[in-house]
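Hey, quick one: can you model this chain's 3D structure?
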Amino acid sequence: MGITMKKTILIAMASLLLGLSACSVEKSTTEKTVNQATNTNSMTIDAKIKTYLQENDDTTEKYQVSDVKLTKGKQTYFVNVESEMLCGTGGCPLLIIVKNSDNTFAIINDFSPIQDITISDEVKNNWKVLNVLIGDGGSSEMQRYIYDKKSKMYQLVNVQ
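Sure thing. Here's the predicted structure for all 160 residues.
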């Protein structure tokens, strides 16, 4: 292969890498750190997440927040924590956070580690049923969770 051909390939590879890094920058705008609060509500949710991270001795403070509809009348969020300390071969923690009527936020569940979560169309106790793929690196298992009004959190349902 001639020198001109090698230069052309290197330039093409560099352009591809620059293009990919530009794409990842766009995607990372959905990620937050505790210091990137954008409004009063996100500052409160950021404070709740920061407390969770501190309680787990994590200093990464990277996460993604998704607004999800789990029940009528309450704002609910999935928070995917991205952390070298808390993530492993089985996945990363996923928090379910609810906005209370007094505009505070509460963590109602901490699924850790999780590989995937799907929201079922099925509703029990006025909340949607969750199917959570839990893994430990060696094996994975789909588990079904139903919201329990008494404990105010999702509980594992024994499937037989």
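One thing worth noting: Residues 1-42 have pLDDT under 50 and may be disordered.
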